[in-house]
What we know:
By secondary structure, the protein is α/β, with parallel strands linked by helices. 49% of the residues lie in helices and 15% in strands.
Amino acid sequence: MNILITGASRGIGLATAKRLLAKGHSVGIFDIDTDELERALKDKVFKKALKDKRIVQGHLDVTEPETWDTAIEHMVDRFGGIDVLINNAGILVSGTLPTTDLDKQLSLIDINCKGVLIGCHKLAPYLSEAKNGKIINLSSASAIYGQSEVAPYAASKFFVRGLTEGLNIEYAELGIKVIDVMPLWVKSDMTKDINVTSINRLGINLTVDDVAKKLCKLSCSPNRKLSRTHYPIGMPAKVLQKLSQVSPDPILRWVNSRVGTK
């Protein structure tokens, strides 16, 4: 299979690329930070895949449609087609909204929302030609109920959730499966230096490899076996999702306020 991964220079994206390459797949590893991407590819785990020409790497600013075109062209030229898009690129800004930098929050919305939308738009014609074409979006357990201290981030993941649900229906006639994964907090560069009450109370219990393992499994699964739209990762996320399906809104708000506010 040929898989395109955004935000692949570190964290979940890089860990997923390693797993997929180890299984013999061909992977396009793209990121806005090409210097970090080049450093990552020096890891000896990529040596065989590079020799076998199963890696395409390059610059991709997910908010710029033209760079998507270039990344797609590189993939098609090297591999002949694309089977899976993993919309992984994203950023996090923590803090109460009035105390955070507005430009950073607007950039978050651009990357987390606009970037995912452009990818879903640009890849559709190519994925429709694949036998098991699919899009896997990185959502979050924060998309189950809005979270204090990361409200714009949670809102961006609600966007990803809604887009995934809509395209899961819309793209079915194209033969494309659209799903998302919904982890809670993951130990990575993104969460390394943030101070959020819900992290202080719940801790960070997932690693990038936990998420990468799930992404790899979903990428390789036949579309007919993917009966769900959302895939929570980790017990807290699974419990929160189940709770959201049966609990009235006031109860959900109470639970989240106790977990996420000081």
